[in-house]
Queue: 2 jobs
Job 1
Amino acid sequence: MEAGGHETPERIGDRRLAQAILYAPLVVFLSVFFYAPLVWLSYISFVDQDTGSLTLRNYLEVFTSPGYLRVFAISLAIAMETVAATLIIALPAAYYLAFGARSGERPFLIAGFLVPFWVDFLLRAIAFKNLLYVLGLREGYVATLIAMVYEYLPFMLLPLYASLSVIDPSVIEAARSLGAPRSMLLSRVIIPLSMPGIMVGALLVSLMSLTEYIVPSLLGGSQVFTVGMMIYSLFLEGGLWGLGAALSIVIVAASMILAFYASRLLAVNRNAV
Amino acid sequence: MALPSPGGGYAMVRGEPGGVRIAAWLIIVALIAPFMASSAASEENVLKVLNYSEYIDPEVLKIFEEMTGIRVVYDEFEAAEEAWAKLKVGGAGYDLIIIAHSYVQLAIDQGLVRKIDKSMIPNLANLDPLIAGHPADPRQDYAVPYMWGTTGIAYVEGCVADPPRSWRQLFDEDYISRYSGKVSLLSEFSEVFEAAMIALGYDPSVRDNWNGEVAREVARLVGSIKEHLVGFYGASEYMPALANEQICIAQAWNGDVLVVREENPRVNYVTPEDGTLFWVDYMLIPRDAENVEAAHKFINFLLDPEIAARNVKFVWYAASIKKDLLVDLAESTGDSELMEILEDPLVYPPENARLIPSPVLDQEMNKLLEETKIAVQTGEVPGERSSLPLYALMAIVVAAAIALIARKRA
């Protein structure tokens, strides 16, 4: 953008090519492994499984059946509660890491916070189930939520820490010396400045936890049934591919819209800072 | 040692340590063997068989080889999907594949199996008419029953003072609330649905009973006991949970309970008196089988009472031939080990058991199952408690998010 005025058309062409080479590997990879299957999936979602003709019936069913809406609502509630809980737990820790911790202490703390997440997440979920039994907790909504929070804490903690650590400490000093009480320091300085981190963290955690399958199916017991479990069931147990595909497409579309708006909000935010 | 096999078409969980490693080897062997066999043995008479793991007495293969001079290349698989993948491509070099009944209709419809030449299998007369009559292929035109088992109720003695005798009792809220949080139903919702049908007095093997009206009744019944369930457990979950007595009652498959009983003798099994569903594993000759004649010979051989008796003793599952033939054999040869297995209610259901063939599901039935499952899981059934708190919570979250965004924009 900034240097564009000085370049000849050929040079701009060269630059475009160079840029294309930069993002080509990612585009090729995602096209083969995500977008092409997604197109195929969306085709399946429009096919009537009985007759093989094109139809909107699958979508009609997804949107009009109270059961599906309720399952979606439960998944959304779990996702939002996971976001809220991870934020509440990670924010103070990230703040301490960024401003409180001595520089020698920091690597140890970060390592200490991240080690528990190195175990493969399926193994972790199974181990968690046994741990909850030891603690006297049974499968259910609470168990699912605790395990989800555990699962997604790093995805909240790391973006928060990244955004907090770039805040200039003198800004905080200034607010303090100008007499801002602690609550105002938090609400008017720290949280607004860490908003990009909060947004990224919330986006990552909410999108991943919305379609989570393993944790609720292992720890939900008879009380929890989520979108991920329903998609699994429609495809693999019921063999109802059209319906399962329609539901998946709706979820993917909702996620994309959410991601799009969040990143726009983020862009607005960055310009404001 | 003749360890009971859980490989009866559903549960593929190994109780013994090292099982995974063995399984990995078996899969590797299963992948390589057909190629090696096809290059080495083009001249001699070879029969290639694919079966569930630990689902045959290896002696039986030797006897067949000695009797007929046909060399048997025998491979094993863990999950029915693996065998189905082979069937899908015409058999992948195999001449005989054994697979769960739920795949049989699909295989026939898609033209993946050969018609059975009944004149080559006189031992078809040995088949138990009840097992042979399973709707997967009631006339044995394409598929011949190998072994079978049941879905019933497992319980832990000591934990349960008054063991359930029927599905009606298992689905009774007064009864089940006494063991609240210690009861599991199967993760395969079709099994839950069919058991609830029996509890309600409907025969699941009658296609007309699979309608919306019955589905709503089932949803209401399962919904009424849901809060007392610890979960919908597959074999990999209910087997260890029964063994270490974390749960007291589980809807379960007989073969799995046999495995658990080895570990914890307090675990027992009930064939519900109001009806017990049975499943059947079938022998199929794939479309592209090369040695069709030998495959027929092998099927006939396996239906021989002496051979079937060997397999029953080895795998602890019920054979597809008439039980009387095996009882006669045990009596005439004084085989007390065989007799003991024949009298074990975990292998052979008691005489008075009401056996119902587990139905072959079509797409409409699958749809009904999925709808009912969602109804049960979401409480979208009349008479269930409301989910108002959930909506209130969501409303608060959404309102907070909007407020936050609005403040940012301002």
Job 2
Amino acid sequence: MSDCISPSDAALARRLIELTQAGLPVVAEPWQWLAAELGLTEADTLALLTRLQQGGAIRRVAAVPNHYRLGYRYNGMTVWDVDDDQVDRLGALIGREPGVSHCYRRPRRLPVWHYNLFAMIHGRSQQELDQQRAHLRQLLGEARRSDDMLVSSRILKKTGVRLPETLARTPSGIPDEPSQHSAHQSNPKPDTGSDHHA
Amino acid sequence: MNDDQRRLMNRLQQGFPLVPSPWRALADELDLEEAALRQQVDDWLADGTLTRFGPMFDVEALGGAFTLAAMAVPEPRFEAVHQLLDGLPEVAHNYRREHALNMWFVLACDSPAAVTRSLEHIEAVTGLVVMNFPKEATYHVGLHFPV
């Protein structure tokens, strides 16, 4: 549990997850709808959403496009070996690039795996993907010792990320975002809520 | 997509306003008609252009635990190991990637301890080394696809 989220907010967040599993209804006053469902005023509902967003339980309230429909059919997991002293600065730097959807520091596993910085990139063509990778390489400059890009050739499993049992009252859970579909899958499953990618 | 649709798509990806009458706020900002905005979002949800409209939760912030892990699976055993992982409910994603580490999967568990147990279980049943790549820092999460 995040320190930033009070127990009462966490309980409301559970209700919120249930209520918006299929998304926010596209009605004129969605916050009033939500307020009525939660038994709160509209002002308290907006305050709750703001607190949950500040505490990190909600990443954002937004529309998630099917990126295949928008033409983003190519993706790659770029991985970089950069100086530990500089990884935080460099991660923030490349994480800001528009083609990067996820950017994390992860541990090296020597001698097999030298890379400590991971960034998922997306493009509308192989050329665009290659350009993005080249651009990241340029941004990382001399701090980059080596790098690679892993392309998924097959989705072996893609189910929803289930809610932790302690949170879940309904069994359907929350699927993860459609971030890593291979080019072979043209019609990704609907995304119903979690913005998380491990 | 026409210009208005593009502007709406780009704007909606940035976030829906957390203010009373959010559609009106959006309509004013984009100088478009409020009811038409909602109709467009409805249409996009119906035809699959949008996969979701609403809050995006970080389950980890609410107590869940995740990790990314990878294995170098010998080709003759690839299908069998794939089937094995398929049967584990905590394996949320699994991808074949073209690399010596050819199987990459995401574990989604109730707690960090459950992640550790699952990693040990997978090593035990496959006899393969599982490389665990937990997040040590998050620099960016967010899909934004400009159109």
